[in-house]
Write a structure and sequence with these properties.
Order of helices and strands: HEHEEHEEHEEEEHHEHHHH
CATH topology of the domain at 194-336 and 354-400: Alpha-Beta Plaits
Biased composition (Basic and acidic residues): 404-413
CATH superfamily of the domain at 194-336 and 354-400: Pseudouridine synthase I, catalytic domain, C-terminal subdomain
Largest sheet: 10 strands, mixed
Pfam family, one: PseudoU_synth_1
Binding site for substrate: 197
Number of strands: 10
CATH class of the domain at 194-336 and 354-400: Alpha Beta
Catalytic activity: a uridine in tRNA = a pseudouridine in tRNA; a uridine in mRNA = a pseudouridine in mRNA; uridine(38/39/40) in tRNA = pseudouridine(38/39/40) in tRNA
Helix content: 25-40%
Number of helices: 10
Subunit structure: Monomer. Forms a complex with RARG and the SRA1 RNA in the nucleus.
Structural class: alpha+beta
CATH architecture of the domain at 194-336 and 354-400: 2-Layer Sandwich
């Protein structure tokens, strides 16, 4: 029997309603489960954020603590501008100045900065950025060159027993010998009026070119030869164009003009059965290799490889082949601050930058670390004698388009990376 249309419609509607309710129930359950996961996710996210915040707070606390330590040091030991008087034997070092990115080439400044940090007179995080401490060396000495009177300027915490604490962290061949307060604007390079170098060499360097160098110990320098040596060195006094005495310097470059006030060779003396002498030169500033070439050319003239007129010609516009003496015997003796001392030395706050009280310590360091190294290295390696054997290669007569020394200047600069002023 067929039901009436109205009854059939009611049954269909009821069936659809029940299905719809089931679907809605399942949807609500799904939504309910999703609602339960959402707070959990939020909690986990918040926990991660709190962990990150905690790590940041730890790092911030460390920074604050470090800054607090620095602040305490600032209060207890005020940061002041000073100069340090240094002495060092340059053997085994690639010059004075640090060369960032070339850690295999150890320099004097590498060891100095490490000692400054370890002694506690500069912040540890400034070790790689010494500009923050206004650090400046007076002279950049070349590879193997020593110093008895180097001066560096920088800001330090004036801790107790500062010099002793720095020296505790330095090797014996590097020493800080003195300290003086200077003005805030002082710069050891820019305020320097002049520099004095010495050069210790075996006197056999002035022997005739046919002398038997196998018997170095027997050679003695004649007084007449010493007089001629000093007459030639005197030619350098005054202002000259030294473009031939360095690398990559054009004849018309104004910076090649340098002022020399003194140059002479002292009386010979005996060390380890061989005769040595010391040449002293003072000038406003010096270029890379300049002093070694000044000495090298005089040796070439004395030995008879070159005529005296080559010295005058070397200051002209043409290119002249000037030999470069070994670096072993070169020593930065003293740096001069006459104008600064005159202006500020008597103001009641600062001292004159002179080191009379340190003279004995300077002399003792040279006798213990510099002179013996030069003598022993010369005896073992024969650097001067080996160099003398190359003098015949140089062409002192012709105008050289590329000199013997300049052929290898790129390698020299790669190794040394410094100039002398």
């Amino acid at each position: 029997m067929i039901k009436s249309p109205s009854l059939f419609s009611a049954l269909v509607i009821r069936t659809l309603t029940l299905k719809t309710i089931g679907i809605l129930d399942r949807f609500c359950c799904t939504m309910s489960e999703g609602s339960k996961d959402e707070p959990t996710a939020k909690l986990m996210k918040r926990a991660n954020e709190e962990n990150e915040d905690s790590a940041e707070r730890v790092q911030a606390a460390k920074r604050i603590k470090a800054e607090g330590v620095h602040a305490e040091d600032e209060k207890k030991y005020p940061k002041k501008k000073v100069v340090l008087l240094m002495a060092y034997s340059g053997k085994g070092y690639y010059g004075m100045q640090r060369n960032p990115g070339t850690s295999q080439f150890r320099t004097i400044e590498d060891d100095l900065v490490a000692a400054l940090v370890k002694s506690g007179c500069i912040p540890e995080n400034h070790g790689d950025e010494m500009k923050k401490m206004s650090f400046q060396r007076c002279a950049r000495t070349d590879k193997g060159v020593s110093a008895a009177g180097q001066v560096v300027s920088l800001k330090v915490w004036l801790i107790e027993d500062l010099i002793e604490k720095i020296n505790e962290h330095l090797p014996p061949q590097i020493r800080v010998l003195g300290l003086k307060r200077v003005t805030q604007g002082f710069n050891s390079k820019n305020n320097c009026d002049a520099r004095t170098y010495s050069y210790m060499l075996p006197t056999v360097a002035f022997s005739p070119k046919d002398y038997d160098t196998g018997n170095i110990a027997a050679f003695r320098l004649e007084p007449e030869t010493l007089q001629r040596v000093n007459r030639l060195f005197a030619f350098y006094k005054g202002t000259h164009n030294f473009h031939n005495y360095t690398s990559q310097k054009a004849a018309n470059d104004p910076s090649a003009r340098r002022y020399i006030t003194e140059m002479s060779c002292g009386e010979p003396f005996i060390r380890s059965n061989s005769e040595f002498a010391v040449i002293t030169v003072r000038g406003q500033s010096f270029m890379l290799h300049q002093i070694r070439k000044m000495i090298g050319l005089v040796i070439a003239v004395i030995k008879g490889y070159a005529k005296e007129e080559v010295m005058e010609r070397s200051w002209g516009q043409e290119k002249v082949d000037v030999p470069k003496a070994p670096g072993l015997g070169l020593i930065l003796e003293k740096v001069h601050f006459d104008r600064y001392s005159k202006r500020f030395g008597g103001d009641g706050l600062h001292e004159r930058l002179e080191w009379e009280r340190e003279e004995e310590a300077i002399k003792a360091f040279k006798e213990a670390h510099i002179y013996p190294t030069i003598v022993e290295t010369e005896r073992q390696e024969g650097s001067m004698v080996n160099w003398m054997s190359t003098l015949h290669i140089h062409d002192f007569e012709a105008t050289a388009t590329e000199t013997q020394d300049n052929k290898g200047h790129k390698q020299d600069n790669a190794e040394e990376g410094n100039d002398s002023d």
